[in-house]
Amino acid sequence: MQDIYILGIESSCDDTSAAVIRNGVLLSNVTASQAVHEAYGGVVPELASRAHQQNIVPVVDQALKRAGIEPTQLSAVAFTRGPGLMGSLHVGVSFAKGLAASLAIPMVDVNHLHGHVLAHFIKETPEDHHAPQFPFLCLLVSGGNSQIVLVKSYKEMEIIGQTIDDAAGECIDKCCKVMGMGYPGGPIIDRLARQGNPKAYTFAQPHIKGYDYSFSGLKTSFLYSLRDWIKEDEAFIEHHKEDLAASLEHTVVDILMKKLRLAAKELKIRDVAVAGGVSANTGLREAFLDHAKRYKWNVFIPKFSFTTDNAAMIAITGYYKFLDRDFCSMDKPAYSRISAQNG
User: Which domain holds residue 180?
Assistant: First the structure.
């Protein structure tokens, strides 16, 4: 049987990434990050797309070299078609189309969010079989998304709960910015929270039916509480930043886990996974391990390198779509948001 080599390309936001998978096993995963956005307190789309243009050729070249293969050995090119920043996506999509056309091989378009979920199926060795059993629940949390996904198969996924306003990562970033601690907020809050008391302060929690989330109320509660405390002590944030970070993190994790517990109980599912950038958070990872003991869950937590935007997750998703002969035509454009046509 001929080996299947899939090149994955990810360019949905500010990381340019390329990976190569052979028969489902990861051979390389190369990512170029963009530090230019730190000075602006958030990703600047125009700067992001320019950086992708500079990075994509050397990143793909390195991914192929580290995998030890020639471009002519590729079976298909998988790429993130959306959702994401349109300018960033255009760079990856255009490159994938050009490469696929030049090699006369098929293209596979990947939904970025599906890629995060299927990151749990990336194998680093042929003997690696640590993956959830279908059906399983996946808590997908990032700067732009907070969802509970019922995963029925590699290609059949149902969003059963999602945020009605801010995402968890967005809430953390904004609260960190209010504290004047910099961007991105996730790693900063995580680091400070390890030194603080998670029960030091109490913030508002939403009361929403079903499995949906809301984080705008928490963000507002955090902002108003800070305003009142600063009136009494101008240096309040500096004096209490560790406890503030720990209490914020604790509240976010508590909100996330309550709905996930409800879904797991009502659907009688014990295989529960977490994915997305916020899944790198120490408090959330500890909560998953705690729930594994308390509720007899089989939990699946990705390696740190597979939590952020990376091409390995795009390549593995592309691999399973390739096996189904689910290819993409040249005329399909990138999309910034999910709709009925491209979802």
Answer: 136-268
Q: What is the pLDDT of residues 253-275, one digit of tens each?
A: 999 999 999 999 999 999 999 99
16-22/5-10 β-pairing: antiparallel
- Size (the chain), residues: 343
Buried b (16+ CB within 10 A) or exposed e, 238-277: eebbbbbbbbbbbbbbebbbebbeebbeeeebbbbbbbbb
Say yes or no to pLDDT of 43 above 70. Answer: no
Q: How far apart are CA 319 and CA 216, in angstroms?
A: 38
Same domain, 141 and 259: yes
Three-class SS state of 142: coil
Q: Is residue 278 part of a domain?
A: no
Number of folded domains that form the chain? 2
pTM for the full predicted model:
0.92
For residues 121 and 9, membership in a common domain is answered with yes
What is the predicted pLDDT for the residue at 54? 87
Residue carrying the six token digits 């979920």: 117
Element (H, E) at 99: helix 86-103
Q: CB of 90 within 8 A of CB of 97?
A: no
